[in-house]
Amino acid sequence: MHNFIKKLSLILSGVAAGVMISLNFSAVADKALKAELPPLPIEELRAFTQVFGRIKSDYVEPVDDKKLITEAINGMLVGLDPHSAYLDSEEYKELQIGTQGEFGGLGIQVTMEDGLVKVISPIEDTPAFRAGIKTGDLIIKLDDTAVKGMTLNEAIKLMRGKPNTSITLTIAREGEGEPLEFTLMRAIIKIESVKAKLVEPGYGYLRVTQFQEQTGENLAQAIEKLFKESKTPMKGLVLDLRNDPGGLLNSAVAVSAAFLPANALIVYTEGRTSDAKMRLMANPEYYLRGPGKDFIAGLPSEIKTVPMVTLVNGGSASASEIVAGALQDHKRSIVMGTQTFGKGSVQTILPLGNNTAIKLTTARYYTPNGQSIQAKGITPDIIDETDDASRQLRESDLSRHLRSNKVDEVLKIDATDSQKANESDDKPKSKKSSSKRKTPLEFGSNDDLLLTKAIKHLKGMDADAKRKSTKTAKKSS
């Protein structure tokens, strides 16, 4: 056994070095030229090899080496923060497909919280959204299988499947005495990332549901269509980012650039490596994915000045917070709604070979004025609780969430959050709830009270502008 552990230690040291090379961390390479890398943690690696050896020799059933190493990698990443993860070949492929706006499943953005799957946000126009799944719901069973003890990837695999097949989710919801059961039919999730309509002549509505590869171009097309359809000059515009879980960074830059002047700072990032330190501006090189026509250049000039209200809520996360923060800091738009989710960290996809990858948190986002989004979110200029009947889940509620401080701060496990999750897990898991489920609000509909308030606010701004114009004209005459 001693010789086995000694050999395994040498192998693991080689693997660690190989992984560092394969990830091609340019900053690590630069540092290596100037100084020696810190020594490997020999004692910790020795403990690892001892555990590995014990499992191989004493576990009740034989365990495949690949499974043990994969689970060890999973454990390293899951222990860092809620967003870092190991992606096997299937998950890596699904991630790439998902950014293109079409994938199979139920339509839920989820995270793992103390052994349970917690809903960040249901995606609009999907089986989960239509069934009434809500932000903050704890999924405790999938069909007859308890979630406790699963990894997040395992739970996601169970929820995904062939279209037109059903799955029953048992959910613990705050305020409900007993678990709720939802039977959902899986479907191909096709996300329409941009929706648009004229609320009335002169007042337009734009909704971004998720930031995908074509979102910037789709938004530009929607803007052009709105301006052409309006029979009067555009007097006000509502940008709706509620329940938008985020997506691609360059698409967030594109959406922001549509409304901001050229060279305006949209977001900057701070991390440990040189690649993690970026300043992204409202210029084509920061939002175009390769050579091609600048779809923002041909937009009506009024799009840079028309009065705007941006709607957000606790389900607005990541890329949507970048847009809201940029428009707010540049005083380009009033932000209305409730505090946003607070996901202000950058995840970089680092391929490992064999069609696998790791999703690693590498930096924090900051708004143009230097405000951290992480675990704080964007505070609206006008706070309105219309769409948040109850407190929504936010980044700060997640165990191991990254602090909002600078990068030399450590990760923090919130014991209070762990206690809340454990209390939720203590609820009975076999009973069905007879409580009524509200039909989800359709954003942009006639029942959307926050949209109505936003339009009223824009009309008030327009009336104020007219009064100021009249006073100026009288003084001139």
Automatic annotation (TrEMBL):
InterPro entries: ClpP/crotonase-like_dom_sf (IPR029045), CtpA/B_N (IPR055210), PDZ (IPR001478), PDZ_sf (IPR036034), Peptidase_S41A (IPR004447), Tail-specific_protease (IPR005151). Residues 1-27 form the signal peptide. GO terms for cellular component: outer membrane-bounded periplasmic space. The keyword Hydrolase applies. Residues 92-160 form the PDZ domain. Keywords: Hydrolase, Protease, Serine protease, Signal. Residues 413-428 have a biased composition (Basic and acidic residues). Residues 413-446, 458-477 are annotated as: Disordered. It comes from the Bacteria. One of its GO terms (molecular function) is endopeptidase activity. Pfam families: CtpB_N-like, PDZ_2, Peptidase_S41. Residues 429-438, 468-477 have a biased composition (Basic residues). This is Carboxyl-terminal processing protease. The lineage of its organism: Bacteria, Pseudomonadati, Pseudomonadota, Betaproteobacteria, Nitrosomonadales.
